[in-house]
Write a structure and sequence with these properties.
Blueprint lengths: L4 E7 L2 E7 L5 E6 L4 E3 L6 H18 L56 H14 L1 H10 L4 H19 L7 E8 L4 E9 L2 E9 L4 E5 L2 E4 L2 E2 L2 H20 L5 E8 L4 E6 L6 E5 L3 H7 L6 H11 L7
Helix pairs in contact: 2-4
Length: 314
């Protein structure tokens, strides 16, 4: 006889049956609404399917051989099953009871996981190009004049280049691009969630520039810019918004990824509080992968689930 531990998880309009072995090995979960099984380790899928089937068979027996009424699911207490029990069919989508939901149903939201990198900056570049006119824009590009359109266009290129580096992270990482925050046009270039934690990545593209960093001071061609302060504010804001939604404390670190500093890139001293880190664009994925793990796979999934919702950032 093999016993499984199956618990119900319901939040943000989702409903899942999470299974693990008696020894505590997580097998994955069954999404009640979509009818799909999810597991971080594909070798666990057969065990996951069996655990869920046994759990459903046991539930039917406890109800006198009948299926649970529509909308009724067992509470969050562990339930045991047996490998000798007949296999049950996967359940149909059932609506969670209102009193069991931890918060009211969220308003309509947009899934941010499909947003293209640099999309917000690209929109700004196109708007600036239309405002200046085609002929003026052509002359500005020909003569190398620094215009608003050029700044947004170069920013877009930087975000796309950083996104290409982030794509090298392993499957245990989740990456969102151009996350719009609030209602004043602000956005986070990249939000990265993985074993090492949550990071807000700010791409800074300065072609043929000289960059020098010393603690709180960030200099571009001898001119001080507020990148460290802004990145720290961005990370703190993201941590607060994610914590409010996910239900457990979430910390975030701001990362400034620098690109194009061909005349020199020097980091004499990183910002002292550890909430902001400055790296080159080419080293950003390597930096994240070398950090120690602080989040479990379940925590990464839970944070990503709320981070990908546009309503989280409003």
């Amino acid at each position: 006889m093999t016993e499984w531990i199956v618990r119900r998880w319901a939040r943000y309009g989702h409903e899942r049956l999470c299974a693990e072995t008696p020894g505590g090995t997580a097998l994955g979960h069954y999404d009640v609404k979509t009818g799909r099984f999810h597991s971080d380790d594909l070798t666990h899928l057969p065990l996951l399917e069996r655990a869920i089937a046994d759990h459903l068979a046991g539930r039917a027996v406890s109800l006198g051989g009948t299926a649970a009424p529509e909308g009724e699911m067992p509470g969050p207490q562990p339930v045991t099953g047996s490998t000798e029990a007949p296999r049950a069919e996967a359940p149909r989508a059932e609506a969670p009871r209102a009193e069991e939901s931890r918060e009211e149903e969220s308003p309509e939201w947009v899934d941010l996981s499909g947003t293209a990198p640099g999309s917000a900056a690209r929109e700004q570049a196109l708007a600036a190009r239309r405002a200046q006119g085609r002929f003026v824009g052509f002359l500005a590009r020909l003569l190398g004049v620094r215009t608003e359109e050029r700044a947004w266009r170069i920013g877009t290129q930087g975000e796309e280049a950083v996104a290409a580096q982030l794509a090298r992270l392993g499957p245990e990482w989740r990456v969102l691009h151009a996350v719009r925050v609030g209602d004043r046009g602000a956005d986070i270039d990249h939000v990265v969630i993985g074993p090492a934690g949550v990071f807000t990545i700010n791409a800074k593209h300065h072609p043929d520039a000289r960059v020098w960093v010393g603690g709180e001071v960030f200099m571009v061609d001898g001119r001080r810019v507020p990148y460290v302060r802004n990145s720290r504010h961005e990370a703190r804001r993201a941590a607060r918004l994610l914590t409010e939604r996910v239900g457990f404390p979430v910390a975030a670190v701001g990362v400034i990824a620098v690109m194009g500093a061909r005349r020199g890139f020097t980091v004499k001293r990183q910002p002292e509080d550890g909430l902001v880190v400055v790296v080159t664009r080419k080293r950003v994925s390597q930096y994240l992968r070398t950090l120690p793990s602080t989040l479990t796979a379940r925590e990464v999934e839970a944070i990503h689930e709320v981070a990908r919702r546009s309503t989280t950032w409003r």
